[in-house]
From TrEMBL:
Gene3D superfamilies: NAD(P)-binding Rossmann-like Domain
One Pfam assignment: Epimerase
Name of the molecule in the record: MIOREX complex component 2
Lineage top rank: taxon: Eukaryota
UniProt-listed InterPro entries: ComplexI_NDUFA9_subunit, Epimerase_deHydtase, NAD(P)-bd_dom_sf
Source organism (scientific name): [Candida] railenensis
GO CC annotations, alphabetized: mitochondrion
Domain NAD-dependent epimerase/dehydratase span(s) in chain numbering: 6-82
Membrane-spanning intervals of the chain: none
Length: 279
């Protein structure tokens, strides 16, 4: 039996690294493509083991010549790249410890950087359209072209796209709009591409227990709100269900990704509620 293979674009990111880890633990050959080509910093001692088994490659997703040949023989591709704000400084801020004054300044810069008066300051490396939509469509078209050269009986290439559950407070509408546009484009490329659209909400890492990290503080608040909602309303009020959403770990999302990959009959959208049921 041929070994299974998967390429993860954004494999050293917050979610991407757990998709790589789950792949290694599930017996896949895993290749990660990122702009740095470097593995992420280990969160735990266990991370050191699987990080060594991933093939870390440097590539620019918007420049196919930097990775196209390495996709030969790949069964599945994952697009795990995205921006909450077009000013990417928020990423380091979210995973740092709480500093209220600096955090407020950082949030202001992120919002102004996404909606401010100088759109020409944006580059192809930090815009919603290029990172969340155009890069995914470009990658899908490369895979579709490769698939067209195979026998008619060849199975489609599985394309996992990390989308989002819904709009987020204070986050510009372009964040969700470009993800939904990418979903539409990917689904239109059937039958050569089997699209698997993941729609997680707020994510945390099960191995990161630092109580002062802003992400973990937000996690605690959202989890408490969700539990109160369940105690008071249960699932009986659709309006409340749509506002107060479950949170999921990156590990939960990664497990659901492989569950859908290995179900060859599945294609389409995996909503947040389905991911959350996999606890």
């Amino acid at each position: 039996m041929a070994s299974k293979s998967i390429a993860v674009f954004g494999g050293n990111g917050f979610l991407g690294k757990r998709i790589c880890q789950q792949g290694i633990e599930s017996g896949y050959k895993v290749i990660s493509f990122t702009r740095s080509g470097k593995p992420p910093t280990p969160t735990s001692h266990h991370d050191i083991h699987w990080l060594k088994q991933v093939q870390w490659e440097k590539a620019d997703i918007l420049k196919p010549d930097t990775y196209k040949k390495q996709l030969n023989g790949i069964d599945t591709v994952v697009h795990s790249m995205g921006l909450l704000f077009e000013n990417s400084n928020y990423k380091s801020s979210l995973d740092s410890e709480l500093d209220l004054f600096e955090d407020l300044k950082s949030l202001q810069k992120s919002i102004l950087g996404s909606t401010g008066p100088n759109p020409m300051a944006r580059t192809t490396q930090n815009s919603y359209a290029s990172i969340q939509r155009d890069s995914a469509v470009l990658l899908a078209d490369i895979l579709l072209k490769k698939h067209s050269k195979k026998a008619a009986s060849s199975p489609p290439v599985s394309f996992v796209y990390i989308s989002a559950d819904q709009e987020l407070p204070a986050v510009p509408s372009g964040y969700l709009t470009t993800k939904r546009e990418a979903e539409t484009e990917l689904r239109s490329r059937s039958p050569g591409i089997r699209s698997i659209i993941m729609r997680p909400g707020f994510m945390y890492d099960e191995l990161d227990q630092n109580p002062r990290k802003k992400r973990n503080i937000v996690k605690g608040v959202l989890q408490a709100g969700f539990e109160i909602k369940n105690c008071v309303f249960g699932d009986s009020v659709p309006l409340v269900n749509g506002i107060i959403r479950p949170i999921v770990s990156t590990q939960m999302v990664a497990r659901e990704v492989y569950k859908k990959i290995e179900d060859e009959s599945f294609f389409g959208i995996v909503p947040l509620d389905e991911i959350a049921r996999g606890r």
